[in-house]
Amino acid sequence: MPVTLTIVYDNNAFDTSLQTAWGFACLVETGASTVLFDTGGDAPTLLGNMAALGIDPAAIDMVVLSHIHGDHTGGLMGLLDAVGGEPPVVVPVAFPTSFKEQVCARTALVEVREPAQLLPGVYTTGQVGSAIIEQALVVETGEGLVVVTGCAHPGVVAMVAAAKEAAEGEVALVTGGFHLGSANRRTVEATIAGLRDLGVRRVAPCHCTGDGARQMFADAFGEDCLLPGAGQVIVVGGAR
C-alpha cells in the first residue's frame, strides 16, 4: 500500500494556488489512517490550504506535533475547533503544561517519551534532544521507512537514527525541516554524509532547511532529492 505525503503548510512555494507562510505541516495518508504532522503557524492558512487541496479536516485520525515552537503548533487550536474537538493530539512529554491543558480542554492528549507505535505502521521516535526536545514521525511503506521531521533541532542525522531504532527497516525518504538555514557548508556536507551512512535513499528537505542547504542536497542526491513546498504531494511505496 503506498503512503501519500502532502505538504499542506510551508514557507516554500510549490502549488501557486496555496498560501505560503513560515512553518510546516504534512498530511500522511497510509490507506488505513490519516495523520497530520504539525499544524503550521496559523489555522487560517492551514485550513485554507487544506480546502484548496480538497482535504477534509474531519478525516484526520491523529495529530502529531514535533516540538513546541509556534510555527509548528499555531494552527492546532483552530483546527480542533473546526472539527469539533477530535482527533487526538500526540505531543512529547516535555511540552508545557499550559499547552497540554489547552489540548485536553478540546480533545484527547497522548504524551510520549519513548519510541512507540501510534497507529498500524506509524511510529514516533519519542523525545530526541535536550535543548529543544523534538519527535519525528516514522511510517512504514513498501519501499522502506519514511521519516518526517518538523525542524530537526537535535540534528536530522540524530532524528533519523532515532527513527531507525523506533521501527525496523531501511530509510526510503526523509522529509521536513532539516534546520540548516544558518549552517556553514562543512556542517551541511557532514549532515549529507551522516544521512548517507544511515542508508537514506531519498530526501525532500523544506521549511527551515535553507536555500543553500537545499541546493547542496539536490547536488548530492540528484534525482533522489525533491525540493518541496506547500502543495507538494509525495507518494512512497507506489508510483513515483
Topology:
Layout: E1 3-10, E2 24-29, E3 34-37, H1 43-52, E4 62-64, H2 70-73, H3 76-83, E5 89-92, H4 97-104, E6 109-112, E7 116-119, E8 122-124, E9 137-141, E10 144-149, H5 156-166, E11 171-177, H6 185-197, E12 202-206, H7 211-221, E13 233-236
Helix pairs in contact: 1-3, 6-7
Helix content: 25-40%
Main pleated sheet: 7 strands, mixed
Average pLDDT: 96
State the order of secondary-structure elements, H for helix, E for strand.
EEEHEHHEHEEEEEHEHEHE
CATH topology: Metallo-beta-lactamase, Chain A
| CATH C-level name | Alpha Beta
Number of strands: 13
In total, how many domains does the architecture comprise?
A: 1
In short:
With 240 residues, the protein is an alpha/beta fold.
Key attributes of the depicted protein:
240 residues; alpha/beta; Metallo-beta-lactamase, Chain A; six-stranded mixed beta sheet; 7 helices; 26% strand
